[in-house]
Design a protein that fits this description.
This protein is an all-alpha fold and 418 residues long. It has 2 domains: 207 residues, no CATH class; 153 residues, no CATH class. Helix content is 72%, strand content 3%. It is built from 18 helices and 2 strands. Strands 1-2 form a two-stranded antiparallel ribbon. The longest helix is centred in the C-terminal third of the chain and has 35 residues. It is globular. 38% of the residues are buried.
Length: 418
């Protein structure tokens, strides 16, 4: 919760205590105290890739451009982010724990959206702005204690929506109705961020929901109605901002082109050390020294190339492949399980993670993320789901499932004994 809500930023004494690092230490102790779960082939692929990446980062310290920056901030930040993988894989070893974690995760992300929206409506808060070819347009960013810009807030909004939809499928109708009422608020917040990547990401989420749903006609009509309502109420600057995604004759088109040229320049800067890179966490430092822009590369793959070189990019690419492959296999296996509430919950989590993965693949083209939690949560979540589903199909799990669910009168979710 500290990571998601930026508690050290909100409570200065927690920042002075280095609360995030203390939590990492606590989690590490917990990892050693918990029993090692039985690994599957997919577990070992993801875990092996991530461990290899960490070893690579450490052994290349003497050869990188700024080893001091790597040791002081790069490695600690990478460990705090990658810890989400090991925490998920080792601690969230049951369906109940996995669901509880993602409920808390989504609640925290929703709060991060609702807080700046509330401040905007009550105090006129924006938090950021952008240049629009002669005009400055205000953009909604994270709350004052939540250090994310407009694109970062758009990422949080899309994350919340993708999880809310799938996780709420098993909720009661009153709760579903309340969640349904929240969607316009999230849509309103996304428009205020003026994030072009966010709008495209929402399109990816809507497409995933459409193809995974059995009510395609109703969804098509709902999505079309939403577009017809939203487009007329956009301000001229907001309309130009989104049109600049595909047009070069509107305000904001120059900044869209700068994104492309910026990625090319960042890649050229990374070519100074193409094999091992400049060191984890040094993308901002590299661009400040070589390009005069103190910003990390706004492309995950270029960021990794700058920091870890071609070798590190290959290792991380294998880690991404293991995530995509694992979630695809998990969904196929989950749909073969006997129908029941437990199976439905597993499918809901898998659909949510897979949709979030699609969204992240889009965002990775226009944003950094090596030291963010999303890919490690995706990897860990896929591993846990694969382990749970594999256990459900084993002979020993049948007896356990029957004994656990018989008292509640729900044995339909248990594997078929034949």
């Amino acid at each position: 919760m500290s990571w998601f809500l930026h508690l050290p930023e909100r409570v200065p004494v927690l920042g002075a205590m280095r609360l995030d690092l203390l939590l990492v230490i606590v989690i590490l102790i917990g990892l050693f105290l918990t029993e090692q779960p039985v690994a599957t082939d997919d577990d070992s692929k993801s875990t092996r890739a991530l461990k290899l990446l960490l070893i690579y980062i450490i052994i290349t310290i003497p050869f990188v451009q700024w080893p001091g920056s790597v040791i002081k901030s790069g490695i600690p930040n990478f460990i705090k982010a990658s810890m989400f993988y090991f925490f998920t894989v080792r601690i969230l070893n049951s369906e109940k724990k996995l669901l509880a974690f993602f409920y808390i995760f989504v609640a925290c992300e929703a709060f991060r959206v609702l807080e700046p929206v509330y401040l905007h409506l009550t105090e006129g808060y924006w938090g950021s702005s952008t240049y629009m070819d002669g005009d400055m347009m205000a953009r909604l960013a994270g709350a004052p204690s939540d250090t994310i810009n407009g694109n970062g807030l758009a990422f949080v909004i899309c994350t919340t929506v993708s999880f809310l939809y799938f996780l709420s499928r098993s909720f009661s109708r009153p709760i579903k109705f309340i969640i349904l009422l929240s969607y316009p608020v999230f849509g309103y917040a996304l428009i205020l961020t003026a994030s072009r990547t966010g709008i495209l990401a929402l399109g990816v989420i809507m497409a995933a929901i459409f193809f995974k749903s059995r009510r395609k006609l109703m969804l098509a009509l709902t999505f079309s109605l939403a577009v017809l309502i939203v487009v007329p109420i956009l301000t001229p600057l907001q309309r130009d901002r989104y049109l600049s995604i595909g047009r070069d004759d509107v305000a904001g088109a120059s900044t869209a082109k700068l994104r492309v040229t910026g990625i090319i320049d960042d890649f050229k800067a990374g070519l100074e050390k193409p094999i091992i890179g400049h060191g984890v966490g040094t993308s901002l430092e590299l661009n400040a020294n070589r390009l005069g822009q103190a910003m990390p590369a706004h492309n995950l793959y270029v960021e990794i190339f700058q920091e870890l070189g071609g070798i590190g990019l290959l290792i991380f690419g294998y880690f991404l492949y293991s995530i995509v492959h694992n979630l695809s296999r998990v969904l196929r296996k989950a749909k073969k399980l006997p129908a029941g509430p437990s199976t439905a919950s597993l499918i809901d989590i898998t659909d949510a993670l897979q949709t979030w993965m699609y969204m992240n693949l889009l965002f990775s083209v226009a944003s950094y993320g090596l030291n963010s939690n999303e890919w490690y949560l995706l990897g860990g979540g896929g591993v846990v789901l694969n382990r749970l589903i594999t256990a459900r199909t084993s002979p020993t799990s049948l007896v356990e499932c029957l004994s656990e669910n018989f008292a509640q009168g729900d044995i339909r979710s248990c594997p078929d004994p034949t």
